[in-house]
Amino acid sequence: MWLFTEIGFYSIVAVDEAKGTPWGKAPQGTRVMVRARDKSHLLELAERYFPDATIYQMPNADYQYRIVVEKYAWAEAARDLAASIDYSNFKDHVDRKTELSQTLDPYAHALYRVWATMAAALGPDWFPFHYSRVVPLDEEAR
Q1: Which one, of 125, 93, 135, 87, lies nearest residue 112 by Cα?
Q2: What share of the chain is helix, strand, coil (3-state, %, to 5)?
Q3: 36 DSSP assignment
Q4: Which of the residues 27, 36, 91, 118 could staple to 42 if both were Cys, CB 3.0 to 4.6 A apart?
Q5: Cα–Cα distance for residue pair 3/66, rounded to 1 Å
Q6: pLDDT in tens, 60-72
Q7: Apex CA 91: angle with CA 129 and CA 42, to 5°?
């Protein structure tokens, strides 16, 4: 799962307990690895939700920074992140936070690129979006 939040971008995967790993062993299916490319993203997440988690660095990996947590703890953190949403436009919210700090944030710019990539992938029938085109999805289309 990929998750873009106001505090960072994460890739969350199941821990393969069959592999020998530096983070110990637990029953299969009970833990997830939360991975990040930006150390500050994982530090922020760990500080808020997993203060006792060890952050591992794998310099040659796609996602250099990782923590391993119980699946239920991750579910609680994800629920809290979702419950804290208080904005009507995600990209603008993250961009506004950047403006307040008066720094150019590569993460905010990356969110716009992700949005544009997904808009292009969905094709011309989807974009440009306008609320006048919003209609309920009928049962046959589901």
Answers
A1: 93
A2: 40, 20, 40
A3: E
A4: 36
A5: 14
A6: 999 999 999 999 9
A7: 140
Token readout for 106 is 């590569």
Does the CA dihedral 22-24-25-31 come out positive or negative?
Answer: negative
Beta strands 2-5; 65-70: pairing state: unpaired
Answer whether 13's CB lies under 8 Å from 33's CB: yes
Query: Which pLDDT belongs to residue 98?
Result: 57
Whether the ω angle into residue 128 lies within 30 degrees of 0, i.e. cis, is yes
8 A C-beta contact, residue 50 and residue 78: no
Token pair of 118 as six digits: 């997904």
Q: Is-contact 14 32, C-beta < 8 A? A: yes
Give the orientation angle of helix 71-83 with respect to helix 39-49, to 10 degrees.
Answer: 100
Average pLDDT of the residues in 19-25 = 77
This prediction's pTM:
0.76
The pLDDT assigned to 109 comes to 75
Q: Using DSSP, state whether 48 is helix, strand or coil.
A: helix
Residue 19 has which token pair?
Answer: 């592999």
CA distance 58 to 66: 8
